[in-house]
Structure formats: structure tokens, C-alpha cells
Amino acid sequence: MNNTARVLMLSLLSVAVLAGCKRTVREEAPTGTTPSTAPTTTGTTTTGAFGPGDLDSDACLRQRVVYFDLDQDALKPEFQAIVGCHSKYLRDRPSARINLEGNADERGSRDYNMGLGERRGLSVSSAMQAQGGSGSQLEVISYGEERPACTDSNESCWARNRRVEIVYTAQ
Amino acid sequence: MKRLPHWFALFVFLLLPGLASAQQALEIDIIGGNASALPITIVPMPYQGTAAAPPTDVAAIIRADLERSGAFRALPEASILERPVRGSEVQYPTWRALRQDYLVVGRVIDAPGGGFRVEYELFDVARQERLLGLALTARSNAMRDVGHQMADAIYEKIMGVPGAFWTRIAYITQTGLGSDARYALMVADSDGFNPQTVVRSAEPLLSPSWSPDGRRLAYVSFERGNSSIYVQDIATGARELLTSFRGINGAPAFSPDGRRLALTLSRSGNPEIYVMDLGSKQLTQITNHFAIDTEPTWSADGSSLYFTSDRGGAPQIYRVPASGGSPTRVSFQGNYNASATVSWDGKKVAVAQGSGNNYRIALMDTSLGSARWTTLSPGSLDESPSFAPNASMVLYAAREGRRGVLYAVSADGRVRQRLVLADGDVREPAWSPYRTPR
Lengths: 171, 438
What we know:
Chain A has a domain at about 50-170: CATH 3.30.1330.60. Helices cover about 40% and strands about 15% of the residues of chain A. Chain A is built from 5 helices and 4 strands. In chain A, α4 (about 110-130) links the parallel β2 and β3 (about 140-145). The longest helix of chain A has 21 residues, at about 110-130. Residues about 15-45 of chain A have low confidence and may be disordered. By secondary structure, chain B is mostly beta strands. Chain B folds into 2 domains: about 30-160, Rossmann fold, CATH 3.40.50; about 170-430, Neuraminidase (6 Propeller), CATH 2.120.10.30. Chain B has 4 helices and 30 strands. In chain B, a hairpin with a 6-residue loop joins β15 and β16. The longest helix of chain B is centred in the middle third of the chain and has 17 residues, at about 145-160. Chains A and B meet through α4 and β3 of A and β22 of B.
């Protein structure tokens, strides 16, 4: 084959490959929970995108709290699924908006705990953005230790307070 | 005059016009004692006027103040069998037999033009020498202030250090839980009397900071949904929103000259220390590090800021020039040190120190050169230390059962006094500056 033909072939191949890349790849969000089979009031679209009704009925989307270890803001593996389905909801619903409310347990300085709560909120925000949610859909607010879920001074209550709450301000 | 119960003082305050609600009063219990405290007798001071007696027992106020400082042990009123009101009536052998070092006598008479005049004297029992002879005049509703000013004068004469009894404290209260929670920023006398509400909110309030003239408080409020910093005039209630950036707006601290406010903002992505010029509202960023940098507090000369940073892994105290520069670490004992409060001479820093699950107040003293650490409180959830302006005592927040309470501990750790809110949680105390510049 002469050079011109080779170049032509390569060009055609490149165009074909590039055309293929332009096609949007829709991934299924990884789910560790059983998929919802209950019919929703709005109905799912044929491509499997979330709708507002899923917020109340989808088992994953109904989970709105991510918990953290002491003095940590690293996202634990068992919460990847929750991050995943909410990220998908954000991708499917460009009008959706989430406040990520970061919290800390009561021990130590209140102002430092404000920073810890924010770090945890940012950690969840980063994870959601890595899975396709847009930064403009996410707002991080830290409450530090000011909004405890429980007020006992013991380890099990402290663990319940080290959390980020996913709060939808727009669906 | 017999000692008046606390509720009577509250009743009187409720009747007086112009004072805000006093239903959330602080009770005071004294825990612990100091065997080397100076024995002093404050003889009851009778009213010798012709009008209605004052509502306040100034001798009782002085007694309570001096004992609370940890430096004095006052003879109980029941043991005071002789009642001189002036120097010429003092029989020194009586007081030597009772092993007293100091004696205070006085009386209350009518002041021309209304109000009362208190005349009092302080004596050194061993030397049989008069140390002070003073008179104070005040209206009926300011007699507690008179008692505190007398205690300050007595304290200063004996200890050589200004007293801090005629001062105030600010603190946050919370009643109710969850969506029923109600918060208030309160100001009271430093013995807990005369509480006044400065702000009430259904959303959290934090971090009160006094202006050096004692007229304003900066604080953090969540009423706008996210944290915001306000400055409010205590007397008029007028307030100004200073910052409401995205992220954290926290930990405001007035500079000693009142012209600047140090604060924490995370609008750049992580919490950093800033200084705001209160005239121009211009912000200068002081720290620049991906760590959490927060809780700025000024040195007494206004030239540096101490702050909390976890740039080394866990929270520790650092110091940086107030105009910016390289921070240097200051705390080298303990795994967790935060919430620094610095004495007027810069020699003492009290912190909330964490060790495992035990958080207590610790004091780092550099008076003798290298840092010596002492523990001031037992823990286990102690936080928010605040020095009195003379650094003789530290106010802090503790948890007892399900309840937040305040304690005042002497700087040598020997005497602790609990202040308990009758209803709900008390926290985030801030001790005011002196009422008049020292």
C-alpha cells in the first residue's frame, strides 16, 4: 500500500475513533444495596435516570448520612455506595442542589471542630464531584459540634455525631 | 445585717427598671480550698442612715469575691462576734486570737442627694496598721458594683496586683434540644449576678469576644443558615454584620486597641486566620497553610497572635506576628492543645488540652524561662478557658452529667468555683477586660 493510502486509512481510522469517543458513555452507579423495584409516582425514564420521587423511594438515595472515624475526614469504603447514588442523582438532575452539612463530636475545641466538620463535608463533596456531580450543585456548611444527633458523652453517641448529612435544597 | 438569700437579690433586680430579665441566674458553689490562703475578716457593715436600708450586703460580696480568688480564706460571719465599724473600735487582740492576718471594717450611710456612701478601712492585724481608708458613693442599684470595687481595692493593696472582681463575663446558654433548642448570648457580673440577655436565637451562637472598652461583643451566629460574625453594642443592642463569606466565619477576637478583629475564614478552601481593620473593613490574610488554622487570640501588646493549628498533625498552639509572617509552635507538651488564652504579661497560656478521651484545662507558664505545665482542671470534657484580666483566675466550660456548667479556677489550681445555670447548658465563657483601663 502506498503512503497516501496509509495516511488516508489512518485518518479514516482516527475519525472513526474520535467519533466513537464523542458518544457519551452512561455508567450505572455501583450499588451495594438491592436495586429498588417499587414503582415511583413519576416513573423512571427509559434510560434509568433518577427522578425526584426516587429520593423517597430508592433505598440508596434515602440514606442521607455519612459517618467518620475520630479526627478523620477520609471517606470510608462502606459509604462509597451512598456517595455514588447521590452523585448519579446530581448528574441526572442538573437542577438538584445539595447542602453537605459537616459535623463533629463534642470533644475538644468548638472552633477546631468547625474545621473538622467542614473537612468532612469537603471530603464528601470531592467524592461526589469525582463521580460526576457538579461543584455548582454542592454547598458545604459546617456546624461543628453545634448540631449533635445525640447528647450522651460516650463513644457510641460520639460516633453518631461524626457525620455529614446530605440535605437536598432543590430536587 | 443577716445575709440575704440569693433569690432575694434576684427579686430586687426584677423590680428595678431598665434591667433585662434575670430568670437564668448563675448559682455559685465553691469546691476545694487553699490551706495557705490569707485569713481575712470582713466585718458586717451596718446601715447607719435614716432611709431604707440598701438591698445589698457589701461585706458579703467582698467576702465571696476574696474567697473565690483562692488567695483568701474569710472568717464566716457566724464567727464574727465583735463588730467594729471604724478603726477606733478595733481590738487587735481579738483578731490575733482568731489568727486573722487582715481585717476590714466599714459602714453604710446615706449619701447627700440620694443613694449610699460606704466608708471602709483595711487593717494589717499583726502590724496593727491601717492599710486603706476609702469611701465610695453609689445609687441603690449599683451597690453590688460597690462591693466588687471594694474587693478590688483590698485585693490590690494586699496582693500587689489589680483585682478583677468588678468585671463581667459573657457566655452562651442553650435550653432545649434539636429543633426546640434556643440559644442566648448573656452578660453577667463575674460572680454570676445580674445576668442580661444580649442576643437570643433559634440557631447556634458561639465564640463571644469582648471589645477592650467592654462596650461591644463580637460573636458567631448561624441565624443566616451559615456561620456569620456580628459585632453588637451591649447597651443599645445595635449590631453590625461583619463577615458572612462562604465557608466558616468564626472565632472573632478584638485586638487590645479595639481597632482590629482577628478571625477565621475558610473561604479560600480551608480555615485561615485573618485580621480585619474595623475602620476600613479591609481583610489581611495572616496564615496560608492547608491545615485548620483557627482560634486567634492577641498578645497584650497587640503585636502577635496565638492560634490553634493542626499543621503538625494534631491541634497545637502557634504564634505569628499580627502583621503576618512565619508561625512558630509554642506548645510542646500533650497531643492536643487548643483554645489558647494568654495572660496580660504574656507569661502564661491556658489551653484546652486533650489526652485520649480526657480534655482538661492546662496552664503553660514561662515566667521562669522554660515552659512549666500544670493541670488546672480534672476534665473530662473541659474547654474554652478564658483568663481574668489580672490572670489570677481562669474561667472555663465543663460538662457534668448532661449539663454544661462554668467553673472559675485560681491560676495556681487550688480553688475551683462552679457556676451553675438553673436551666439548660452554659458554655463558651469570655472574661471581660477591666472596666476602667489599668
